[in-house]
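Pipeline run #58 for the internal structure catalog. This entry was flagged by the ingest filter as a single-chain record with no existing model, so it goes straight to prediction. Upstream metadata was stripped on purpose; only the residue string is passed forward. Reviewer on rotation: M.T. Logging verbosity set to normal.
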Amino acid sequence: MKSLFNDKEALSYGSDVAMRVYTSRLLGQDSNLVLHGGGNTSVKSKVDGEEILFVKGSGWDLATIEEPGFAPVKLDPLIEMAKLDALSDSDMVKQQREAMIDETAPNPSIEAILHAIIPFKFVDHTHSDAVVTISNTPNGEAIIKELYPNFLIVPYVMPGFILAKTIYDMSKDLDWSQCEGMILLNHGVFTFNEDAKVAYEDMIKAVTISEEYLEKNSSIQVVKSQEKGFDFTQLQKAVSSAKGFEVKMRINQSQTAVTFASQDSVAQLAKKGILTPEHIIRTKRFPLLVDENISASLENYMQEYESYFNTFATDEICLNKAPNWAIIPNVGTVSFGKNEKECQVIEDINNHTMDAILKGECLGGFESISLKDGFEMEYWELEQAKLKK
């Protein structure tokens, strides 16, 4: 991975937030780092003599973010939140908004507290495909520790307050001056520095280490489509009926999709799960694996989803049980959505996930987060609150 930082262009960004916009967009340009709203960045600066954290706002995309996309939050209240023993997501959002100096700004990222406790001016966080792919394997933690000896390695925990609290406790005796970054297993990467360029290029260097490791240790044999006669219209009608509205459908017969769908072990690969936690909200945990009887395979999928929900649910409202994407063996994949944009987002995520699974299998087997952890992300408190209203 190559740095896109341009020293001449950077001179035109005079303020801390302007520079934060510039390097955030550099990160957002690479889909191997972040996808469709993923990742977050921040900068600490002073406003009227008070320390303020400008952190990516909810709903903004790093590839296109502008200055209004950064939520300005008082730094001290965020650090005090990290010291609490517990904090619900809804209370965290409420307290973060109360600490903002501009009520018209978007809600701060759920990682705002974590950004606050990292004692550097610029903080970058991505969901690097390469790094997460390695960590999602049986020996992933050991490999990551070997590749990144000077990084803080953090076991998977739920993003948001729990993650911030975990890192706050882990870093109490940490010499931050000797820490080159953080790897969140099954999740992503953090780099940080007083200088925006250094923080950004440290991210590029860190990701390159994992990319080079995968190049040496994983090899995918490309497969060409073997079947052409699948009835996509019948599948679209069946899924539309299951979802309760007419879905749009996007057929994916890219090299990655066809190779994945043509694996002898595709039934097992389809159950491997997500690449990084936030993807589950878009794609669900698993796709539909279509067999000769579309209706039967769809009914079986929905029964399995209901069983999954009943296993982990407490007082949650069940989401639509129909799939968001499907694999057609030896043909390719299909994404379903309310519109073309939603289909495209799901397809993009799937392409990265399928590539990661195939590479992870070369390292002993791809292993996503647990079903329970996945459920907690899919049925996130704040999203459930919207449904209950």
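catalog note: The mean pLDDT is 95.
catalog note: The first strand starts at residue 40 and ends at 47.
status: ready for reviewer M.T.
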